[in-house]
Design a protein that fits this description.
The protein is of the alpha/beta class. The protein is built from 5 helices and 7 strands; from the N terminus they run E-E-H-E-E-H-E-H-E-H-E-H. A 7-stranded mixed β-sheet has the order 1-3-4-2-5-6-7, sandwiched between helices. Helix 4 links the parallel strand 6 and strand 7. The radius of gyration is 16 Å and the shape is globular. The structure holds guanosine-5'-diphosphate (GDP).
Length: 204
């Protein structure tokens, strides 16, 4: 439950890119992380990598086009090593963003999702306590329809009493037009379901 099946053995910052030409060569499977600002995206990446400060918690908001890439090596229980790349997408939060920022984010995400070679899956993060926001409802079903595998993770589940967790996940699945049992409840602070998320990231 708390991360015994997968062990991140290294995690290194690779590069920052604003334009497509700055994306690193797609030489390993890539997993992108998307979510509105403050949802807990940096904390999730740090928890998966077993690092406290690989990604700055509460990144400067408003950088609508900056992609950060990290190279991660994780070892599974059998000792097999998997090399992946994480792409930290800029957080969205359209309620407070200007029209120009929204358009920038939309263009960036569209070219990335449609054009990125090696993109294995998108991890879409929602706040389990708050549930999907109108922005999440705008963005996540669109990403699902864009055809890349999408893993929806409801983080900060530690803030919900245990009996409310499954009903909340079901509510989230319904709002985001997903199948039953597809969303993962997660907590970075408690390390809850780290293995479940790693298993989904690495795939069958
Ligand atoms: P980001 O803007 O999406 O990268 O979000 P951060 O990772 O910076 O987290 C935003 C805030 O939520 C910070 O105050 C974190 O400490 C808090 N937070 C993140 N993940 C969790 C979690 O799993 N549980 C709880 N209780 N708080 C969390």
């Amino acid at each position: 439950m708390s991360g015994n099946l997968f062990n991140a053995i290294s995690a290194e910052f690779k590069t920052t890119a604003v334009e497509m030409k700055g994306w690193p060569k797609p030489d390993r499977p890539e997993i992108a992380f998307a979510g509105r600002s403050n949802v807990g995206k940096s904390s999730m990446i740090n928890a998966l990598c077993k690092r406290k400060k690989l990604v700055r918690v509460s990144n400067t908001p408003g950088r609508t086009r900056t992609l950060n890439f990290f190279d991660v090596t994780v070892e599974d229980k059998s000792g097999k090593r998997h090399e992946v790349r994480f792409c930290d997408l800029p957080g969205y939060g359209f309620a407070k963003a200007s029209k120009a920022d929204r358009a920038d984010w939309g263009k960036m995400i569209e070219s990335y999702v449609k054009g990125r070679e090696g993109l294995r899956a998108m991890v879409c993060i929602v706040d389990a306590e708050v549930g999907p926001t109108p922005d999440d409802v705008d963005v996540i079903p669109w990403l699902i329809k864009a055809g890349r595998p999408v893993i929806v993770v409801a983080t900060k589940v530690d803030r919900l009493p245990k009996h409310k967790r499954i009903p909340r996940l079901q509510e989230i699945e319904k709002k985001l037009e997903m199948g039953k049992g597809e969303a993962i409840g997660f907590s970075s602070t408690e390390g809850l379901n780290l293995d479940v998320l790693w298993a989904r990231i690495l795939g069958p």
